[in-house]
Amino acid sequence: MAITVRAVVRPARTFATEIYLVEIARGLAITFRHLFVNLFRHAMRALGVKGLLPGAVTIQYPEDPAVLGARARTRHRLLKRDDGAPRCTACLLCETICPAKCIRITAENAPDPMIEKRAKTFDIDLGMCVFCGYCVEACPVDAIHMDANEVAISSYSRKDMIWDMPELLGDKPKLSSKPVWS
Amino acid sequence: MMLAIPLGDALFTVAKVLFAVLGFGLGIAALLGWVERKQSAVMQDRIGANRASIFGITIIGLFHPLADAIKLLTKEDFVAKGARKPLHGLAPIISLGCGMFCLAVLPFGGVIEFAGRAWDLRPIALPMGVPLVLAALAFGVHGIVMAGYASGSNYGLLGALRGAAQMIAYEVCLASALAGPLFLYGTLDFSQAVQWQISHGVWGIAVQPLAFIIFLTAGAAVTKRIPFDLPEGESEIVGYHVEYSGMKFGMFMMTDFFESIVICGVVTALFLGGWAIPGLDLPSRGLVGGTLMVASFVTKVLLLLFLLMQVRWSLPRFRFDQVLGLGWKNLLPLALLNFLATTWAAYLWR
User: Fold this and answer.
1) How far A24 CA lies from chain B's nearest CA (Å)?
2) Given CA atoms B335, B336, B337, B340 in this order, what sign does their dihedral have?
3) B243 with B152: CB under 8 angstroms?
């Protein structure tokens, strides 16, 4: 493909732009338009008129849910096979690639002779996780996803930031921790 | 001399000054804190501050100035180690005092007849109100330089120097811009300037449009608001009040609002007909006329403040050399040329 060059013409410096007042008026026209259009929409909404665009793009976050992109990397989730057993085979690829070293897996022999190993414990320290998504990419058996659509992950202690396997599988709810002073 | 003033007049004057400074000034200054947040939010398609609530009632964020005041009053009043303490405390008082004083000279109304005697609605009736306001605004520079010098911080001192350079540059423009209109009105008294505009049936902005623009620009620069906010620079530039916290910092913030109100008041009096309402002979209508006078003046000031606020949230900031260049090289010569043209035109017209 041939390289094409597009010449960008700089706006000419005319007297109108040099005295600055015309440009100020044009800028003010834009901001005033936004102000009055939005005020009108807010007023109509307050009066109960439907069918108008909202006057603001703000999401009132804690009350209204956060809007996440389709590809957003959120909290990790461990997946299960059809028979309900975790998909993880304890190959340690995710633990190896993790740049934050926040995954800790211990392996054990699996009862199924077709499967060599399974995870005995699978802990992710979300306080250290950098949400890079490498673990999801590295997993050969599609056992870990970052699509729990949960971003408000917080606790009152570093220990409580560690999620264990039942919590990541969704078998056990993560109990919110209490502050140490209560 | 003082004793010769009747008690009623003295009380009336005190009431007027209290209304101008505390009622009008502090009220509008607190309101401006809310307007600043909400107006900028709505024009940027946002909602703006709406979380301050009393028992769950928020009334579109109107409690936020109150929350601001409580926060500033209860914060630690920190004084840095190397600070010169008396000056450190005096600086915000000088700054705010100058702004407050100017409010008491503004012409909120003319003279009305009521209850068998004449009442002058100006808080302090002075024949030289305009130069007094200019002098008080210029004296506010002392507060800034003092703040920078007394804070014991080199950053504060640098910010103070920036502020002083800018304010002095624009005080000159401010005074020069008024030379033209004041020459036309033939007075230094706000009331007589308003009277001139009423008797000639034309507002100052129509006969002196250039002076209006120069004065408004220089006024925005003197009040240190965007696009001229280099002396303080809300978050990213270290300004003269870097070593101030608590209510002392709040007083510097209030100074900006007070000075904005003063500038808008002077513009209203000299360019927008002051308390006059076109087509109405207010002084002959007694108490109703007086109320309308004050209402008209306050409304005009509020509209100007609204415009300045919109400008403040629309324009990008200047570079410092551009600020000083605009003041000394463009506005000042223009203001002087405007004065020359005015005198020449008045000579030809006589």
Assistant:
1) 7
2) positive
3) yes
Q: Which helix (H) or strand (E) holds A163?
A: strand A162-163
Q: Which residues of A touch B43 (CB under 8 A)?
A: 31-32, 34-35, 38
In degrees, rounded to 5, the angle at the alpha carbon of residue B74 between the alpha carbons of residues B70 and B80 is 130
Provide mean pLDDT across the span B1-6: 60
Residues B262-280 have pLDDT tens digits of 999 999 999 998 888 887 7
Give the closest residue to B302 by CA, choosing from B249, B260, B331.
B260
- Picking from B41, B47, B314, the nearest residue to A31 by CB comes out as B314
Q: What percent of chain B shows pLDDT beyond 90?
A: 46
Interface confidence (ipTM) of the complex: 0.85
A34, B42: Cβ pair inside 8 Å?
yes
What residues in chain B have their Cβ under 8 A from chain A's Cβ atoms?
39, 41-47, 213, 310-311, 313-315
* A182 pLDDT above the threshold of 70: no
d(C-alpha B36, C-alpha B48), whole Å: 10
Q: Under a CB-based contact definition with an 8 Å cutoff, are residues B329 and B169 in contact?
A: no
CA distance, residue A32 to nearest chain B CA (Å)? 7
User: Coil, strand, or helix at residue B155?
Assistant: helix
- Residue B336's contacts (CB-CB under 8 Å, 6 or more residues apart) are B176, B179
* Res. B97 pLDDT band, cuts 50 70 90: very high
Among the partner residues B47, B213, B311, nearest to A56 by beta-carbon distance? B47
> DSSP code of B241?
T
Q: What is the pLDDT of residue A175?
A: 81
Chain B residues lying within 8 Å of A60, measured CB to CB = 47
Q: Given CA atoms B49, B52, B55, B58 in this order, what sign does their dihedral have?
A: negative
Distance CA A159, CA A30 (A): 52
Question: Which of A24, A35, A42 lies closest to B43 in CB terms?
Answer: A35
Task: Specify the pTM.
Answer: 0.84
Q: What is the pLDDT of residues B228-240, one digit of tens each?
A: 888 877 666 778 8
How far is Cα of residue B132 from the mean position of the Cα atoms in its chain?
Answer: 13
- Which has the higher per-residue pLDDT, A32 or B1? A32
Does A31 contact chain B (CB < 8 Å)? yes
What average pLDDT does the structure give for chain B? 88
**b (16+ CB within 10 A) / e for B258-290:** bbbbbbbbbbbbbbbbbbbbeeeebbebeeebb
Question: Could you give phi then psi for residue A123, rounded to 5 degrees?
Answer: -110, 135
User: In B, which residues are within 8 Å of A35 by CB distance?
Assistant: 39, 42-43, 310
Closest Cβ opposite residue B45 in set A21, A28, A57: A57
Tell me the angle at which helices B246-271 and B129-150 cross, rounded to the nearest 10 degrees.
160
Nearest CB to A39; choose among B42, B213, B314 = B42
Residues of B in contact with A53 (CB under 8 A): none
Question: Using one digit for the tens of pLDDT, what is the confidence trace for B126-161?
Answer: 888 899 999 999 998 999 999 999 988 888 898 899
